[in-house]
Design a protein that fits this description.
alpha+beta, 5-stranded antiparallel β-sheet, two-stranded antiparallel sheet, globular
């Protein structure tokens, strides 16, 4: 089991936990994104659903309630062909919290309404479709780049950055000290990091 906390530019903190401690059928993956007044939870190696829990004011609640009518646009990914089972559902519980200001990420807001949103690509039975469409979209992106010379959606810099984070985490575990992650395009010499 490996755990690493990564502080990104701008103060964004990411905690990564990876383990091979679960039995094959019990394995899982969870990504939790903290937005201050909201959080998003995405489960699965091939995610087909995201849950959002948010606190907001009346204007925000009304904006959330309009999202299901925009499901096609919200769930659109270039190159990914939908199957028709995608949906966005939103419930708003008004006056679920205090009308006193709440403070989060250095910001103070009055957020009495609790929102729950569910973005669903069709449930577990649609995983094969989501996976095959993801691979097809990646290949289509590669073909597009070969044709017009543009930048791919996930480029080499993204891959290099992921490897640099893993290398820094490994070195931090080995030495017990914080490690910098070199910026893309710099030469990485682990023995020179302090």
């Amino acid at each position: 089991m490996v755990s690493a906390d990564v502080l990104h530019p701008g103060g964004v903190l990411a905690s990564h936990l990876h383990s091979f401690t679960h039995a094959h059928r019990c394995e899982g993956q969870l990504m939790r994104l903290d937005h201050g007044f909201a959080e998003t939870r995405i489960e699965g190696w091939i995610p087909v659903r995201a849950e959002i829990s948010a606190w907001t004011d009346e204007q925000g609640a009304e904006a959330w309630e309009r999202l299901p009518a925009r499901a096609d646009a919200l769930l659109h990914v270039d190159g990914f062909r939908p199957h028709g089972g995608e949906r966005v559902s939103v419930t708003v519980e008004r006056d679920a919290g205090s009308s006193d200001p709440a403070r989060g990420r250095g910001e103070s807001r009055v957020v009495p309404h609790h929102v729950r949103a569910d973005l669903d690509l069709g449930g577990e039975t649609r995983k094969p479709h989501v996976y095959s469409e993801s691979v097809r979209a990646a290949v289509a992106d590669l073909v597009r780049v070969a044709r017009d010379g543009s930048t791919p959606v996930a480029d080499a810099v993204a891959g290099l950055t992921a490897v640099a984070v893993a290398e820094a985490a490994t070195l931090a575990a080995d030495t017990g000290t914080e490690q910098p992650v070199p910026a893309p395009g710099t030469t990485y010499h682990p023995q020179e990091c302090s």
